[in-house]
Design goal:
mainly beta; eight-stranded antiparallel beta sheet; 22 strands; about 5% helix; globular
Length: about 325
C-alpha cells in the first residue's frame, strides 16, 4: 500500500454541473477518465501506462496494433514509465541486474485516488469545464521477488495524471523510504502519434548537447551539439539531449505547423526516438509495418546521469503536453 505524498485538493462541484467520469474495466485492470467536454484518457494498471489520450475525437498517442495489453510485457506505445534505470542497465552498479528500462513499466500499480477541479467560475469558461487527476502508486512491497532481489531498496512512487481541456499533465514523485541512499534514473517514454514522420520536425533543441546512440561507437563523438533550428527525423533516431532548460518548450511540428508543445518540470533531459524502417521491421510488437512512420517519441526524463536520493527525501518531475488540433 502506498500513501500519497500530497493529496490533491478536490474542489467541491456543484450538483447542478456535470462532472468527469472515471470508469473501470470489468477486470479492474484498466480505467478510463472522460471530461464532460469529451476529452478522455485510458490507463492500464499494468505499468500505470496511459494507452490513449483524445481531444475533439482525435487520438494523440501512438499505440502499436501488436501491443501487449494483458500484462505479459511492457506496452509498445502510450506513455510507459521508466524507473530506476534508462535503457540497458550498466554492467556494474545497483541496477546491473535489472531489465532494460527497469521495473516500473512492467509492474502492477495501485490506483490511489481521483480528484476533480471546476473552472466554471473563470471568465470565458462554461459550466462543467474541469479537469480530473488520477493518482497511482508503486512501492517495494508490490514488486516481484525477482525485481526486489535485483534492486533491494525501499521506495514509493506516486504517479499523477491530470487530464484537462487544454492538455495532459503527468508527474512522478520518487520517495526514499529506506535507511540508505539510492541512485536512479526516471523518464516518461511518450509515444506521440504523427501523420507522417517524414514531414515531422522537432523545435526547441538548438544549441543543446546530445548523445547520438545510433552513432555510438569508438569513432563517434561522445557528445555533439545540435546545430539545426528544427530536427528532422531521417531513419533510425535515438538521441539524448542533455540539460535542456526546463523553461524551454519542445515543439513537434507537422509540415511546419505546431502539433504538440511539451513543457517539463525538473526533467532536464529529452530523448528523441524513432526506430526507422529496419529496426521497426525487427520489432515483433510494432505493427502495422508502417507504424514507425506514425510515431515520434519525445521523452522527458532525468537520464544523462544519476539522481541520488537520501533516506526520507523526495524527487518530483513531470511534463505537460499541449496538443494543437
Amino acid at each position: 500500500m502506498v500513501d500519497r505524498l500530497r493529496k490533491p485538493a478536490a474542489i467541491p462541484l456543484s450538483p447542478s454541473f456535470p462532472v468527469p467520469r472515471v470508469d473501470f474495466s470489468d477486470d479492474h485492470g484498466r480505467l478510463k477518465a472522460t471530461l464532460v467536454t469529451g476529452e478522455s484518457i485510458e490507463v492500464l494498471l499494468y505499468g500505470a501506462t496511459i494507452i490513449s489520450w483524445t481531444t475533439h475525437g482525435r487520438e494523440h498517442l501512438f499505440l502499436s496494433d501488436a501491443a501487449h495489453l494483458d500484462g505479459s510485457k511492457p506496452v509498445r506505445g502510450g506513455i510507459p514509465l521508466v524507473f530506476p534505470v534508462f535503457g540497458p542497465p550498466p554492467a556494474q552498479g545497483a541496477t546491473a541486474r535489472l531489465a532494460q528500462h527497469g521495473f516500473a513499466r512492467s509492474s502492477r500499480w495501485e490506483f490511489l485516488n481521483r480528484s476533480t477541479s471546476e473552472s466554471a467560475s473563470k471568465a470565458g469558461r462554461a459550466p462543467g469545464d474541469s479537469s480530473v487527476t488520477l493518482d497511482f502508486g508503486l512501492s517495494a512491497s508490490q514488486l516481484t521477488a525477482e525485481a526486489r532481489q535485483a534492486w533491494p531498496y525501499d521506495f514509493a512512487l506516486i504517479y499523477s495524471v491530470t487530464l484537462g481541456r487544454d492538455g495532459l499533465e503527468t508527474s512522478i514523485q520518487v520517495r526514499n523510504e529506506g535507511r540508505e541512499p539510492f541512485d536512479f534514473q526516471v523518464l516518461l517514454h511518450t509515444y506521440l502519434r504523427v501523420e507522417d514522420i517524414a514531414k515531422t520536425t522537432v523545435a526547441g533543441l538548438h544549441d543543446v548537447r546530445y548523445v547520438d546512440k545510433v552513432r555510438a561507437g569508438p569513432a563517434a563523438p561522445k557528445e555533439e551539439t545540435e546545430s539545426n533550428a528544427v530536427v528532422a527525423i531521417r531513419g533510425e533516431t535515438d538521441r539524448v539531449y542533455q540539460s535542456v532548460a526546463v523553461d524551454r518548450p519542445v515543439t513537434v511540428l507537422e509540415q511546419g505547423q505546431a502539433r504538440f508543445e511539451i513543457r517539463r518540470d525538473n526533467l532536464s533531459d529529452v530523448v528523441v526516438w524513432n526506430p526507422g524502417p529496419d529496426k521497426a521491421a525487427a520489432m515483433a510488437d510494432l505493427r502495422p509495418d508502417d507504424a514507425w512512420t506514425h510515431l515520434l517519441c519525445i521523452e522527458a526524463g532525468a537520464v544523462a546521469g544519476w539522481q541520488k536520493l537520501d533516506p526520507g527525501d523526495t524527487f518530483e518531475g513531470g511534463q505537460t503536453i499541449k496538443p494543437f488540433v
